[in-house]
Amino acid sequence: MSRKTRGFPLSLFKISARAAFGLALTLLPSSASLSSAPCQAAAGRQPDLKPRLDPSPAAQQVAPQAPRPLANRVVLLDAGHGGTDPGTMWGNYKEKNITLAVVLSLKAKLIALGARVETTRDTDTTVALQDRLDKSNQTCPDVFVSVHVNAVKSSAINGIETYWYDQRDQALADLSLSTVATNLKETPKWSHQRTLKVLHDNNVPATLVEVGYLTNARTRKLLVTKSYQDRIASALADTLLAYFKNPNSERGCPLVA
After folding, report:
1. Mean per-residue pLDDT for 189-202?
2. Which of 50, 102, 115, 173 could form a disulfide with 162 if both were Cys (CB 3.0 to 4.6 A apart)?
3. DSSP per-residue codes, 10-36
4. Any alpha helices (H) in 90-151, and if so which ranges?
5. What pTM did the predictor assign?
6. Tell me, what CATH number does 116's domain have?
7. Distance between CA atoms of residues 189 and 209, nearest Å
8. Is residue 184 within 8 Å of residue 219, measured between CB atoms?
9. How much is the mean pLDDT over the chain?
10. Residue 5: inside a domain, yes or no?
């Protein structure tokens, strides 16, 4: 068979083919364009390899902060008993441990709401009643809240009680009773005037809240659980939110002329 094609030597045909192929390569786009151009063309836009920044104000907004309705409020929390004074007891259950757990939970909730929170104790330590009163009168918080657990001879008795000493205290005590009892679905027994050390001579609105009876079997099972202690703390936080929302609420030490 002849190695010529239409009068041209086969070797010359091969050289011409190579030259044509090389010319075609020089006319093709770069490898980056080969990979992106078909997709860009299909989408009806030119390739854009630069990162884009959204200049709109909405894109530059900072995530909104949580509301702080208790900003600039100061609360002094008093966990009843502690250290060598266990308070009321039932077996291994001690009032001092329950009150401390409630106060620490309440402290965290109030701080999250913007309040500055002081405590008479935040560990299992002995604090004299006079020292608790002195701290309140020295720091002059907006309000003072003392948390306690109750006990009586009759195991059938249950419910919530609050105490106050003078008229500056009564609104806080009344509100504590209604809010805590409602939130915990317990009986609101009374908001009662009484001469107690942490209330008597306390210069700021103060209340003592008995959050349940350790001597009542049903209540006792609740009081010793972390979930119920947290519910009590939430109820007291709701109390203070409502109290401070009222612009006429008493707060702080009275002004001295």
Report:
1. 97
2. 173
3. HHHHHHHHHHHHHHHHHHSPPHHHHHH
4. 95-112, 129-139
5. 0.76
6. 3.40.630.40
7. 11
8. no
9. 85
10. no
